[in-house]
Hints:
- This protein has 290 residues and is mostly beta strands.
- The protein folds into three domains: 16-120, Sandwich (Immunoglobulin-like); 128-240, Cadherins (Immunoglobulin-like, Sandwich), CATH 2.60.40; 247-289, no CATH class.
- Helices cover 0% and strands 40% of the residues.
- It contains no helices and 24 strands.
- The strands form nine sheets. It has a four-stranded mixed sheet with strand order 2-9-8-5, with no helix packed on it. Strands 13-19-18-15 form a four-stranded mixed sheet, with no helix packed on it.
- It holds the Pfam family Cadherin.
Amino acid sequence: LEILVTILDVNDNTPVFQQTNLTKVVPEDTKVNSTIIASEGLRASDADLDTIYYELTTIVPGTDGYFAIKGMNNPEIYLQKALDYEKFKLTTLLLYARDRPMGSNETTNTGTATINIFIEQADTKPPWFLPCTFINADNSVCISSPYTGRVNISEMSTEPLILEPGPIYAVDPDYTINEKIVYSIVGGDADKVFSVDADTGNLTMNKVATSPDSYLLQVMATQVNNIQKYSVATVEIKVINKSYHPPSFESRVYNGTVFVGLAPKSFVFQADDPSSPLMITATDDDFPDV
């Protein structure tokens, strides 16, 4: 008697990934829709020979929507949204492999792979002149104030000029790259009165200023590795007459009177003459007409 026995396959195996823990470094300037990890390195196998369904999620807050898979049966991971190193520097993705579609009432076995994505900062920003003020929440744009200084007319300064709010200084905001910055004057100095040190940014004089007119210099900071990455700052140099005397107050002590209940911005009156507003004045022998 021959007995034919047919073995019916039961769904008793879990999909298995070749690697359950992967690490990938992704440059910040990777183009949208680029493949991050090819499907060959992500596909799972199932001893039951079932069709495998994939799902990708992230467990790091604020990193949703950047990475996705090509389809429910294609685990290839691609970049779905442009990266920004200032927003996040790493994320962890979970790739699920199931032997039944999501929502199925049948018994489902699930395999999981963990994918750690590290964002590598790219050279995307031009130099920033310091000090500067951030104008957005993610600190990706920093606006600097103009530099100001002064020189005496017909007088040659041999030292670097003192500027406000500080010396000319720029940095590469892509700080993990920190590319070298060089400086140059690109406008506002037709007579070549001033020069800037290419390496330090120190502003010095080549010759005396003979006109009382102010100079409005345009100083450019350029990255050595890429001349397309540059910023320009304004430096106003006022030309003044040399001062030999300090200002002096006309009185060492001023006494004033105010009244209870006065509105803001009301006058303070002279203590010895309550009908006259208190005035504090100073003079300077170098500027008798001021």
